[in-house]
User: Fold this.
Amino acid sequence: MRYIGAMSEMEQIRQKIEALTAELNRHNRLYYEDARPEISDTEYDRLTKELEDLEHKYPQYASPTSPTLRVGGAPLSGFENVAHAQPMKSLSNTYSKSELFDFDERIRKLIPDESFTYALEPKIDGVAISLRYENGILTQALTRGDGITGDNVTANIRTIPSIPLQLTLRQPPAVLEVRGEIYMDKTGFALLNEQRQENGWEPFANPRNACAGSLKQLDPKLVAKRPLDGIFYAAGELRGVTLNTHIELLAYLKDAGLKIAPKYWSLSSIDEVSERLDELYSLHSDFPFEMDGAVIKVNERHLYESLGATAKSPRWAVAYKYAPEQAETALLDITVQVGRTGVLTPVAELEPVQLSGTTVRRATLHNAEEIERKDVRIGDTVVVEKAGEIIPAVVRVVTEKRTGEEVQFSMPDRCPVCESDVEQRSGEVALRCTNLQCPAQLKTWLEHFVSRDALDIEGAGGIVCDKLIEASLVFSPLDLFTLVPSQLDTFNLGTPEAPRMLGSKNAAKIIASLERAKTKPLANWLFALGIPKLGKVGAQIIAEQHETLQEVSTSSLLKDIVELSVQSEQVKPLKKENPPLYAKRCDEIEQVGDRLVEAGWYKKAASKSQTRTLAKYTLKNQQGIGSKTAESVLSFMNSERGRSLLTDIAAHGITPSVERKASTALSGKSFVITGTLPNMGRNEAAKLITRHGGAVSSSISKNTDYLLAGEKAGSKLTKAQSLGVAVISESDLLKMLDTPEKQKQLSLI
Ligand code: IVH
Assistant:
C-alpha cells in the first residue's frame, strides 16, 4: 500500500477553498442558468460566508473569479480613475435614411478600392462599459468616463450574474478588452420602481438612469440586488487573438460566455441595411433592454484603421435613430390613486391615443413635484411617450396649444377615497392617506393578503375582494376569517339588477383556503401583513430567526439593527469632540453589532484599522435586513393597525407555522459556562447552546464535554483542566456553530 503523508494544514485550506468554490459555482449555475436551485438562499449565504472568511484569512488562495465576488464585497470609499488601454469613442448619429446613405458615401470615398459589407444591430440604451480579461480572467471594468479615463467599477460589475468572471474559452487570449453596454432589464426596472414608489421614494426616470445610478453605488452589495445585465458589441485592446469581421467578433464573444445582441444581421449593402431597419424596430419591444436606435458597422475589421476616427467617433460605424414614439393627446383629467400603503399617485386621464401599437388611456404623473416641474394642467395638450414601452409617461406640455382654459392641479389634502387627512412623512416625496381603514388601501391590501406569495386564498382575488369591501363584510384582511359558507354561497358578485352568485363550490374553496392559511408559515404571514418596505425575501429572513408574530413585534434583533444605525450616526461627531465618550459608545455599538453577527445577519469587517462604527458591520448578504426595513417592521407591528391585527390573529386561533428547525450542531454535548464572556451574557450563551441541541449544567464533572470560559474563570477552570475537559472561548463556540455540518442542518430551515 502506498503511504500517503498527512496533508499540510495549508493544503487542506486550499482544497477547502477549492471545494467551496466549485460548490458555489454549481449552485450559481443551477440558479441562474437552469432555474433549478437545490439549496435555500440561507444555505447559499452560509456557504458564501464560509468561503469569504477563508479567502479573507488566506488571501493567497483567493481567486479573482471567486463566486464570493458575485455578492459584492465591502463598500468602497470612491472609484479609482483609470486610463483606458484604447480610448472609448462614441458614435455619430443619423436621423434619416438619406443621412445613412451619406454615411455610406463617405466611406466609399475614403476607401474607394475596397469592397466591404455591413453589420446591423440594436443600439442598447444603457451605460457603456469596457471589460478587460487577462488570460481569460476578468481583471478590470471601466466606465467610459471622458473616453480617455474611466471609473473602475470592477467590484460592481462582478456582481452581475451574466458577466463571466472567467471566459469560457479553452485557450483564452492574453488580453481581451471588450466593450458593451450595462443595462437594467425592463421588467426588473418596472418592479424596482414599483417598490420604490410603494416605499414613498422617488422612482427612477428610466432604466438607463436606474442602471447608471446602480453602477455609481459604492456598496457592491446594493448593486448585486439590482437587475443588471450586459451586452457586448465591440473590442478594445486585443492580444493573442485575431478577428477578421465584426460578425466573427460577436461569435467569438458569445463563445467566450459574453452576451451579445439577441438579433443582428450581416448585410451586403447600405440598401439592405436600410430595408432591415424597420424589421429591427419591430422587434424592439421583445428585447429585455431599451433600444435606442440601430448601429451600423463596417463588417471588415481590417478596414477600421484606414477609415480612422474623429475625436468623438469612429468613421466605420454610425447610429441610426428612429423617430421617437410619441403622440399628442388631450389631458382630460388628473385623478389620484391610493396604493396598499396609502401612497397617493396622480394619474393623467388621457384622450385615448395609439402609441407603439397599443391604446394609451392613462399615464402616471408620479407625484406633485413632477406635475409642478412639467407644469401640467388639466385640459392641456400633452406629449405622451412610452418610456421603455412599459409605463406611458407625459413628456411635456404643448404650451403653444394652451387656450387659457386649463386648470392647475394640486394634490388633495384629503384622501380622494375616504376623505381622511393625508400626510407627508419626512424624507419622502409621496403623500399618504392616514386612515388605516381607507377602502382604497384596504382593497389593494386585501388583494395582497390573498395573493399567492402571501396567504394564497384561492378564489378570493380581484372582484371578490372589491365586492366584500363594498358589501361591508370586510374592514380588515382578518375579517375574511369571520366569513361563513352561508354568507358566501349567495354572495352577489354582480349587480342587484344582474346578480351573479359566488356559488357554494367557490365559497367552499375560499373557506378551505382560509383554514389552510391559519397555519401557513410565519414568512407568508409576515409578508401578507403588507408591512411597508418588507418584501417576500425580507419576510423569509425575519421568519428564520423568530417563532411568532408576537416575537417579531418585540424582536431584539430588529431593535439591534435600528440601534446600530442610530448609534453609528450619533457617534461620528464624538470622535473629535469627546474621544473617551466616543470610545465608550463604540464599545456599545460593537456589542450590538456582534449580536447581529451572531444571528448571522451581519458581518464584521475584518480589518482592524476600519473605523469602529456601523461601517464595521455590514449586511451579511445582499438580502439582509437593513435598518429602514427593521424600523418599518417594528413600527408597523407596534402601531395601532399592527396591534389590532395581532389581536385578531390570536383571536382567530391563527398560529403561523415555524420554519426554523432545531439545529443539532451541539446535540449530545454538555457545557458548563464560567467567567465573563466578551460579547454574550451567560444566559444568552446558554440559550444559544440549547438552541443548537447542547445541554448546559452548572457543575463540572468528567462527563462535561466543554467548559465555556470567559475572563475571571476561577475554580471551574482549574477543575476542568484537572479533569481534562476541553476549555473553549466564546469565539470557539461560535465556530462550532459554523461547521459545514451545522450549515447543512441550519439550511433545512
Ligand atoms: S459601437 C467605437 N454598438 O452607444 C464604437 N455602441 O451613442 C463603439 N451603444 O458609445 C460603439 N449599443 O455606449 C456600439 N451595438 C452598439 C451599441 C453601442 C449601444 C452605445 C455605446 C456608444 C453609444 C453611442
